[in-house]
Amino acid sequence: MERIRILATGGTFDKEYNELTGELFFKGTHIAAMLRLGRSRVEVEIETVMMIDSLQMTEADRALILKRCVEAPERRIVITHGTDTMEQTAAALGVGEGVELKTIVMTGAMVPYTFGSSDGLFNLGTALGFVQTLGPGVYVAMNGRCFPWTEVTKDRARGVFESVPGLRGE
Predict the structure, then answer these.
(1) Most buried one in 59, 124, 133, 159, CB count within 10 A?
(2) How far is Cα 92 from Cα 124, in angstroms, rounded to an integer?
(3) Which of 9, 12, 29, 85 is catalytic?
């Protein structure tokens, strides 16, 4: 079985809740705990690249994510990411040089894992399944569906990702 690299970048996926102030914050990634809870038997290497809200993500941050994908020895990569700018990072990776032979699947959550009712565990599991079965390319996997980076958009009114063929002219 081929090892999969999981890159954590933050987003709602890894947010914690401060009961005293009501604020959400980052402490670290929950990926290892989620994999244990899901009884995953997939060989992974977890790497924390950054812990930020995707609304604060810059082009330099996206360049760093691309760099980590290029430098990763694994051909299959899952990236946990905030949903607000996931499609922008997917596009940056999709046109990035050096990842043409890699399969990269991005995923996230609408509800923090620590809330107990998060979609993150399901999304992580499906992303791991998709990354093992899809061919090279950049994809976004959310809520049981998987989209090529060229066709994905987030419908903010409904809080879902959907396919728009020809969206990015590919």
Answers:
(1) 124
(2) 21
(3) 12
Q: What is the average per-residue pLDDT within 100-113?
A: 89
Q: What is the pTM of this model?
A: 0.91
- Structural domain tally of the chain? 1
Domain with 152 in it: what CATH number?
3.40.50.1170
Q: CA 95: distance to chain centroid?
A: 17
12 as an active site residue: the answer is: yes
Per-residue pLDDT, averaged over 113-130, amounts to: 85
Question: In this structure, is residue 148 part of a structural domain?
Answer: yes
> Does residue 169 lie in a domain region?
no
Report pLDDT for 160. Answer: 85
* Span 138-164, pLDDT tens digits: 999 999 999 999 998 888 888 888 888
Task: Tell how strand 4-10 and strand 44-52 pair up.
Answer: parallel
Strand-pair category, 160-163 with 152-155: antiparallel
DSSP string over 22-55? --EEE----HHHHHHHTT----EEEEEEEEE-GG
Strand pairing partners for 106?
Answer: 79, 140
Q: 9 lies in which domain range?
A: 4-163
